[in-house]
Design goal:
With 86 residues, the protein is of the alpha+beta class. It has one domain. The chain contains 2 helices and 2 strands, in the order H-E-E-H. A hairpin with a 4-residue loop joins strand 1 and strand 2. The longest helix has 13 residues.
C-alpha cells in the first residue's frame, strides 16, 4: 500500500513460485538478498472484495544477506503520506 508502512509485499508473477516472488520482493522493497530455500510459508489467507479475489501468503525468512535498506521509507515519503521529523 503506497503511503503506508508495510511489510514487503507484492504479486506473484505468471510462472513464478511463491518463494521466488518473496525473493524478488525482498530485493525490490527492502534491498536484501534471500534464497528460495530460506523462505518458509507461515500462513495463506483467502479473501474477496466486490471486484477481486486474493490469496495473501505470509512467509518467514530464516536468513538474508545485506542490511534492510530504506527503499520502503523512500516510497512512503515520495507518496507524501509521512514527513520525516525535524
Amino acid at each position: 500500500m503506497d503511503g503506508w508502512y508495510t511489510l514487503p509485499a507484492g504479486h506473484v508473477r505468471p510462472g513464478e513460485t511463491m518463494a521466488a516472488a518473496a525473493v524478488r520482493e525482498a530485493k525490490e522493497e527492502a534491498d536484501v538478498t534471500i534464497l528460495e530455500q530460506d523462505v518458509n510459508v507461515l500462513s495463506i489467507v483467502h479473501r474477496r472484495t466486490s471486484k477481486r479475489e486474493y490469496m495473501d501468503c505470509f512467509v518467514q525468512i530464516s536468513r538474508w544477506q545485506g542490511e534492510v535498506g530504506d527503499l520502503l521509507v523512500k516510497k512512503v515519503l515520495l507518496a507524501g503520506e509521512m514527513r520525516p521529523s525535524a
